[in-house]
Structures
1.
Amino acid sequence: MLDTANPVVTITRAGGIARVTVDNPPVNALSQALRQGLWDAVARLDADPEVSAVVLICAGRTFIAGADVSEFGKPPMAPHLPDLVARIEAAQKPWIAAIHGSALGGGFEVAMGCRFRVAAPEASVGLPEVTLGIVPGAGGTVRLPRLAGVALAVDLVTSGRPMRAAQALAEGLIDAVIPGDLGEGATGFARAALTRPLPAPVSARPVTPPPAGFWEARAAAVAKAAKGATAPGRALACLRRAAEAPFAEAMAFERETFLALRATEEAAALRHVFFAERAAPRPAALRGIEALPLRSAAVIGGGTMGAGIVAALREAGLPVTLVERDAEALARGRANVAAIFAGGVMRGKRTAAQAEALEAGVIGATDYAALADVDLVIEAVFEEIGVKRAVFAALAQACRADALLATNTSYLDPRAIAEGLPNPGRFLGLHFFSPANVMKLLEIVPVPETTEATLATGFALAQRLRKIPVQAGICEGFIGNRILKRYRAAAEDLVRRGVAIAEIDAAMRGYGFAMGPFEAQDLGGLDIAFLQREGARAAGQIVPETLGDILVRAGRKGQKTGGGWYDYAPGDRRARPSAAVTELLAAQVVPGAAMGAEAIAAALVGEMAAEGQAILAEGIARRPEEIDLVEIHGYGFPRWRGGPMFATRVRG
Ligand code: 3H9
């Protein structure tokens, strides 16, 4: 029997087990129509004497992926999700959630309202609300501790991390993993379950109190990981209430917290980033353009950047040829790659056997003849135009005419690198960020000759590497390094106006960066940017003397020389304000009015946004939200602030 009264919820019945199928593309988000459909389904199936259990299953790529994030700006409409979850939980016939894809947020809350949860082996479940600046709003923080214990609930809810089916089964979040046909398997599970006494609904289960000191310890850890974001701490408060107060009181507290957070700037910022990230891999201009097949890749240069790119390509499953100029350099490059894979083993990211397999997929070569049949080559050699041109001349000889050729330059003009290349349509810039196997940003820089198919392949590569692609036009530093230059210059201007270096760094940490601009330079080394400026000066450009130049000329290149903007004791990375620096810069500093931390951060973020606006006006970036993605994924801008353009209200 088929019921089609609701456009997104269909009910079928067979042999006493009803099947409620949700079909609300693309991700079965909990729109009002879906909530209403499920609401009505409970009443209808409870009233049907032939039905003894209900399987809730979804069509399409996933189970219910949560509340509809695009509805968050609007007033909530009945039936409200907490009421719907309570209604499913109180149904006279037990509901069984049959999960494929992801059961996230409100989707997992609905599943926790069901009497049982079963899942396909590749499925995952979780409560990612804190990543959207909110807390679960339909009982997630109240039911999860009852289902799986307080400690696990705290881990999952305050991090927002999803959990795969096998582990979810081991932790008691789900009741069975079902290989093969999920609907059939869930129906079989339902029949078997009906032969035994039913477990209590999740809301009726007790919470085991955690040991003394648990909440205090977790509060400190959560605050540290949150880097200034408020939602994780508020989620912890909800979980504590769930462990200490009766169910109804904890539900009311969670709902109140959810509604308050939903209206905050932080939540708006995180929604902005959520939608920007989803739009980034599919630029409108490339709609309908097919990417070229990528079956193999090569990297020229096995330094820090090259090795990181090799690792990223291997982790994406591509066989990689690593080319160096001689056997000795190749051995060093291979060692760099091996160290990255070994680091992954040490951090528990992979097994030694997996690391070995990754390493085995790297073919070393000192002769470009090895590249005769590769689909993609990424050049990551020294930033010197002559060296890079020689590489591309050799690649033009060695590679197939349709092989994609990419440069990873940060500052050179890709047009100059590509000059004289036969078939320049297959050339583009792919600007990775160090460490390239970790950092999510990939700036994609076409030259005027780059074909649409080449560009589309750059985007497809980013997706394969699980990176966030942002197209950039050609200018010095592209999007990210150009903004970085302005940011550093603005920070130096504050120093010239008498603001203490340590105060500026502390202000930016307070804003949410892991490090301030001067600490970051001390870590990375002041000499790289210095050498660049010196190069430009030698080429006849007028580059005013920076404060950083004064320090480098005095031998202060950062932590590696025992001092840069700060002093460092041997073996200690803690930055100490430096009397030597004060003296070196004294002639440049004209003390002005004192500045508070918020004013410092506002001034520097304002400068970033002003550069972003110039970049937009010149067509170097296409949309303000893409500049925000560059800053968040390449430069440590706090995600929960939404990026410099969002934070300063420059919106597309
Ligand atoms: C919540 O549930 C609060 C509750 O506790 C309380 C309620 C009272 N809403 O990522 P994709 C769109 S908070 C609206 O490329 P995939 C997305 O924009 C929510 N739209 O697919 C894109 O649109 P377009 C907690 C959404 O297969 C399209 O769907 N839930 C939502 O790579 C495809 O998305 C989450 O945070 C949404 N919730 O990955 C889950 N989700 O095609 C967020 C997606 O127009 N979602 N869209 O560009 C995900 O993590 C992934 O989408 C998922 C699928 C893993 C499900």
Note: Residues 26-27, 29, 61-62, 65-70, 81, 102, 104-106, 109, 128-129, 132, 136-138, 140, 275, 278 surround (S)-3-Hydroxyhexanoyl-CoA (CB under 6 Å).
2.
Amino acid sequence: MTSNTGLQLVDRDEEGVDRAFRADVLEGLSEAQKAVPARWLYDDAGSQLFEDITRIPEYYPTRAETEILERRGEEFARLIGPGRAVVEFGSGSSVKTPLLLRAIEPAAYVPLDISGDFLRAAADDLAIKFPHLPVYPVEADFMRKVALPEGVADMPKLGFFPGSTIGNMVARTAVDLLRTMRETLGESARLLIGMDLIKDQSVLQAAYDDAAGVTAQFNRNLARRINRELGGTIPVDDLQHEARWNDDFARIEMHLVAQKDLEFEIAGRGFTMAKGETIHTENSHKFDQRSSATLLLAGGWTPVHRWTDDAGRFSLILAEASIKRSAP
Ligand code: AVJ
């Protein structure tokens, strides 16, 4: 396992509390619109619940993207070519990643993830499926530039960022990440990135507020995690899951809505919520052809090809690192 400079990825205090989590929660819940960064939804329980979400009937993105990966292998091979080191941002899915690797004859596979456990599991799984492919897992926070292993130094890179995870970020953060990816991947890199598409509101609403209530559990798990890890007393059952379409920003927002006036403590500090007040817990931005191109271009990537599933719900975009040139 390559550990990037052995840097401490989680900073805990004497009691084992994740300092960044506590700071984000205390700060976010002190703002006029209460909000907690979406990354804190994904502890072990949250990651498991998200896995469950990918299998519910209303949640189309995973199936739509997998359909593209299953059907377009020949085009990937032609447009991407063999011999690249595939650098995956996030620990990789046992379904999507093999579909890509099988299609393009890569020279190496480099999964990047902040969680060593997920990373090792994904890497082991891959090594069994592709016994001749060099696999170099790297435990790192890919929001910052990552030093890739020596073994792939001379290979051209293909970044792989499926799942529309980019949609979790507001434009500014997304652009920062795209530019950082360009730095991580180097000269003549390419990027294959999943971006979910703007569509009928009722379809989006259902995808983020499923009938079985799995997404509601996923959202409420954040409050449970706060109670568990930060000594919180949030009355979780008094918070209702809401998926809201924000048309100005073209995004689905997840909120936890207070069902009555609430008082609770977190890490010794008191908080109140008036009935109807919300905690904003996640954004899931949706794109069209132009907005996705604008975002990629702002991040230093020129789109070269795009695929959608047959129903036109989801897009997978191939982009190349833009070359600086003078205007126009
Ligand atoms: C993991 C960010 C891609 O936005 O669709 C799914 C997360 N949240 N249901 C998404 C999510 C609620 C998901 N991403």
Note: The mean pLDDT is 94.
3.
Amino acid sequence: MQQPELKQSKSDMMDKIVSLCKRRGFIFQSSEIYGGLAATWDYGPFGAELKRNLKEAWWRSNVYERDDIDGLDCAILMRPETWMASGHVSNFEDTLVDCKSCKKRFKIEQITGKKCPECGGELTEPRQFNMMLKTHLGPIEDAASLTYLRPETAQGIFVNFKNVVDSMRRKVPFGVAQIGKSFRNEVTTKSFTFRSREFEQMEIEFFVKPGTDEEWYSRWVDERFNWYVKFGLKAENLRIRQHEKKELAHYAKACTDIEYQFPFGWSELEGIANRADFDLRQHSRLSGKEIDYFDDITNERYVPYVIEPSGGIDRSILAFLFDAYREEKVKDEKRVVLGLHKGLAPLKAAVLPLLRNRPDIVELAHKITDDLKGDLKVRYDDTASIGRLYRRQDEVGTPYCVTVDVDSLADNKVTIRDRDTMKQDRIDVSRVREYLTENLKR
Ligand code: ATP
């Protein structure tokens, strides 16, 4: 049984999560000691674990538990023609205005009147701004050496379509999954990690026969919605929003966003787009290479359509953190719990000695930690009193605490405390691994 939860206001929630992330080693501002670099973030020790677990969960669900998807890991740098073909060179733009007084920059959608929304100053004429980050390859910085840091991982998959079909003997329908960094020179960068300039995406390009695309599209919307719920997001904090025709990106036949109710409002977590045959045809046109598929059963040759579920790792982490955070009242004290899905939790268990000045207790606790280390991410901690140690583990979402006490020396048993129910079980030392493995699956 969970304890009564204390109500939070939405504005407080943002501050609480930002503060918890810094205090407990989840997320730090990049280059903090130099004053920080806007919209770039470093994942601390627990954040790095959470991120790895999230990626592993996504990869497992899509690559290992299905037999119609392969993984890929493409370079961030690609030939600049890629971005001409994809439309990013000509279309990946925001329209911006600057305030002549306070020098702040706004997207045109943020402006309602003719004046600066912050200081009322005069605004410049709108101008186009391409969001791709540029770089030069080789020793000479000229137009010929210009290239971009990829703004999405998808294009690496499209240009490798033939390679995957040929090397893996794939038959349509099949998909290719990729997780990796993307870069966008975002203008608005508020809301913590939600809109970062360097971020990670988890994308699938699922190739289907034209005519079957609409059915696959709705299957993927359901599939992806259910995935977030499976890993712990409350369904009432998620919604599906279909794009209107005028909102659609230049490549899309249809698009649906899975949105999460962040403290700053409903915002996109993942987009599922029907990209039709836009990308494969474009790459074929610009590269001069034939990119199509031959179905040797029906003897048909065609360019497959693509359904693209495209999610952000950083946005998901933010949503999982908000959704998991709760404050409870326990015996008149506030308890902060990060009720993360056990598969995502950075640590699976903490091993705690009740008395750190008793060498025999400490020794047994170390022995249990060493024993578990190979299989589970566990940590030994004796840096505070037991009450405090429990509170620290609750705050970072550790599902189980294993406590070694004086009685353990006599009966060879330890106490295992459950993060959510705070229920304690007394377990034989030899059964700790089995207990944890079993309960972590639930
Ligand atoms: P938005 O409209 O919020 O800018 P988008 O529609 O441009 O997002 P997509 O191009 O569909 O985003 O990218 C797919 C996913 O990648 C998004 O759903 C989001 O989770 C993630 N993503 C995109 N841009 C960013 C960013 N700047 N920071 C963090 N994640 C991002």
Note: Residues 152, 184, 186, 195-196, 199, 201, 268-271, 310-312, 314-315 surround adenosine-5'-triphosphate (CB under 6 Å).
4.
Amino acid sequence: MSDDCLFCAISTGGKPADIVYQDEWVTAFWDIQPIAPVHILIIPNKHIHSVNEITEEDGPILAHILFVARDLARQHDVHEDGYRLMTNIGKNGMQTVFHLHFHLIGGRRLMGRMVS
Ligand code: AMP
Ligand code: ZN
């Protein structure tokens, strides 16, 4: 938990969000500015700044995030048509919230090689 971190506050219930899944390790909630019909953010409950700060001990959490993403994609019916799972890192990656999060984006054809 980091003071002044929006996503820490969401994971602990201090700030509202439209939460779709939560367990002891992760929280998933709808992105407030969705770019596709399905746009869910999946975060570790533990405060991690970005991929740059992950450690070996975070391995189980990171694997768990992938399993949750897989399950949410299925639950929101985008698993067959496909979707994108991505994380932005730092300034050039256009990261705007500095608590590790994975965007699960689907429900439409995502043009280009990446989201711009
Ligand atoms: P990034 O630019 O990769 O750091 O992504 C941050 C994402 O967080 C953006 O897609 C924002 O729309 C989203 N976001 C910011 N504030 C909130 C919030 N209070 N609830 C849900 N999503 C948010
Ligand atoms: Zn945080």
Note: The first helix runs from residue 6 to 11.
